[in-house]
Amino acid sequence: MTGRWRLAADVWRAGRADPRALAERRRVRLDALVAHARRHSRFYAERYASLGPGPVPLERLPVVTKAELMARFDDWVTDPEVTRRGVAEFAADPEHVGREYLGRYLVLTTSGTTGIPALFLQDRPALDVLEALTLVRVAPGMLAPRTVVAVLRGGGRAAAVWATGRPYGGASLLRRQIHRRPSRAKRLRLFSALDPVEELVAGLTAFRPAMLSGYATVLAVLAREQREGRLDIHPALVNNGGETLTPDTRRLIESAFGARVSDGYGASEMIMIAYDCGHGSKHVHADWAILEPVDADLRPVAPGERSTTVLLTVLANRVQPVIRYDLGDAVVLRPDPCPCGSRLPAIDVVGRTNDVLHFAAPDGRDVAMAPLPLVTLVEAVPGVRSVQLVQTTPTAVEVRLDTLPGHDRTQVGDDASARLHAHLTRHGLAAVEVTPAEGHPERDPRSGKLRQVLVGHR
Fold this sequence. Notes:
It is a single chain. By secondary structure, the chain is of the alpha/beta class. It has three domains: 3-126 and 266-350, Rossmann fold (3-Layer(aba) Sandwich); 143-263, Rossmann fold, CATH 3.40.50; 357-455, GMP Synthetase, Chain A, domain 3 (2-Layer Sandwich). Helix content is 35%, strand content 21%. The strands form six sheets. It has a five-stranded parallel β-sheet, sandwiched between helices. Strand 16 and strand 17 form a beta hairpin. The relative contact order is 0.12.
């Protein structure tokens, strides 16, 4: 049996293990991860110096944040050939999306929902675990026999609508598949969420995907186009990623496409944290991830209670150890068994909600602008540290920015506003006024999360 199939078999067994056996798997993997981090990461060696030798219980390990890890990037990583400068330069080239830095690390970047866009590396062990989880748990849950038949009838064509131009998770994973096997380009197609909706409608209608993936707000825009007869596709399966899928949005997408909607949970820190079982729950891949729902004082919350944030430990990745990392998402741990029968812990995820902006085109049409593509566009402006876009009137948008040290805030604000206005003009919205704001992005005082796009008028 090859290593890949041994890993898949282990994932299969873990999904059926009793809680005690699952906890033992986690303990062994956590001890190995901590030992590796102590030996090879200067950051963790310093943080853990006072803990003494040998294995340490999870709750004794200090919590880490994105800000401190990014500030100590070169000390955090365990491969001395990896540098923040090198990774940033690699990630800045759009041609590198989906390719491997140093020939062995997939690079992903995050949007700045905490005010700190970050760079993450996925090493080969982490990507092998991702493939095993997809094969053993995710795919069977999504692809019921009827869905499989419909996908095969549709030629297995899969379309994804993600932000492009930078190594965001969805685009990077799809590009990686094509780079590894170019023949897949015939049935895998990446569409840019930055394109005008008319172009997306035309491209998707011509491609006729059997599966469709994208951000919840983008999928909602496309669902309205389908319902109103301008889009004509019939996917058997629709996958949401990167945004919270509200019940109303799920119903809209399901009714418009007549398809099952799958809603997983992941992040650049760990691409696949939990999967949609189809019975209303997301099950944590608890053999490879430790998820701790905590309150504002980082104390555990009981099942059924909403957390303030969640601490993530990724048990597969060795190049950038993620151990008790404050992810910032609010979750609720399900207190009762899931009807699907899985023994893996089940959660509901709260948050990551931005507003869709609506503008009137000169011909009277309502033009909906999904939030994450707008954020990615502005975050790519040199000097931008974090951004918040606020629609202050039906025809005006305010750009609130924090800038990186060494950059003139006025110039960065003008550049960001100009880029956003050019994008809106491409969508037929040249009359929309885009202005840099004097104020800074306003974060939630408890979670520190930033709603990056919101409507400030009602």
